[in-house]
Amino acid sequence: MAGWTTLVQAETLAVALNRADLMVLDCRYTLLDQNAGEQAYLTSHLPGAAYAHLERDLADMTPSGDGRHPWPTVAQMVDRLSRWGIGPTTQVIAYDDGDGAIAARLWFLLRALGHQKVAVLDGGWARWTALGLPVSSSPASTAGQLRAQYDAAQLAFDSVRLFDADGVEAHLHTGGMLIDARAAPRFRGEEEPLDRVAGHVPGATNRPYSQNLVEGRFKTPMQLAEEFRALLGEKSAADVVAMCGSGVTACHNLLAMERAGFKGAGLYTGSWSGWISDVSRPIAIGT
Questions:
Q1: Where among 117, 135, 154 does a domain terminate?
Q2: In the structure, what pLDDT confidence band is assigned to residue 273 with cuts at 50, 70 and 90?
Q3: Is residue 139 domain-shared with residue 32, that is, in the same domain?
Q4: Which of 102, 113, 151, 258 has the most CB atoms at less than 10 Å from its CB?
Q5: Do 200 and 180 contact (CB within 8 A), yes or no?
Q6: What residues are labeled active site?
Q7: Strands 240-243 and 266-268
């Protein structure tokens, strides 16, 4: 079975929850209260779902990391995957409160590890509950599954798709495209609620990730293809690197691009928070 590799609809997932090869991960999280998502999970979640915390599970928050949500190591991800009972053939479904931004981070983490069968629940928790689909308050049971199904020594992230600041500078210098997923006022430097400096990387193009959505769900592949074709012009997905504030919501653009048929774009893992960690790097203001 090829599996779901970009999005899955709530109605489709609802009839597949008992599949033995399925693992659902609840990624609800908010910057304003970092425990709120986990508390919401403990109260109610999709049946059988485990919880994935953005900072504990989907980032490396050690002091040596780059940016607000540094990219984790392979060993860290293998540890998490083993704890969740996820192996190379597991169909993984990620969801969050609705727009898919945190779930898309998990999607791209697994994709960068070479795991193909991973998708985001379109509309997330908001649409699932709006449809009156089943929920549970019982923690996920992975008894008998907690084993090293992946071997960290045999895995590596796809280095072609992961960029640091130097890689981004070289990418722009050779004519590559850098797409920033932050809201337009942040990109223009008119406001900055999270990082100490406002603005954007010189040469970047702004596409707020919210533009991928209509009423909380992803636009159709045809709509997304038309919009990204207009944005990229003659460039291909391989010419694109995505960024945002900390390497999280940028993954939403990567998911939307793949949904539209533009596969192979990269991610600036440190993103804006990593860029401004070096005060010598240039900053642009305005459009």
A1: 154
A2: very high
A3: yes
A4: 102
A5: yes
A6: 244
A7: parallel
The burial of 92, by beta-carbon neighbours within 10 Å (0-12 exposed, 13-18 middle, 19 or more buried), is given as buried
Instruction: Give the pLDDT confidence score for residue 144 in this predicted structure.
Output: 45
Domain interval for residue 241:
159-275
Residue 93 lies in a domain: yes
pTM confidence score: 0.96
Residue 280 domain-assigned (yes or no): no
Distances (CA, A) of 268 to 12, 189, 204: 33, 19, 12
If one counts the domains in the chain, the total is: 2
Please give the C-alpha separations between residue 56 and each of 32, 71, 124, in angstroms, as whole numbers: 16, 11, 21
Would you say residue 277 has pLDDT above 70? Answer: yes
Per residue, the 3-state secondary structure of 84-141, as one string, reads HCCCCCCEEEEECCCCCHHHHHHHHHHHHCCCCCEEEECCHHHHHHHCCCCCECCCCC
Residues 114 and 213 in one domain: no
Q: What CATH number is attached to the domain comprising 166?
A: 3.40.250.10
pLDDT in tens, 140-174: 876 445 555 787 778 899 999 999 999 999 999 99
Would 283 be classed as within a structural domain? Answer: no
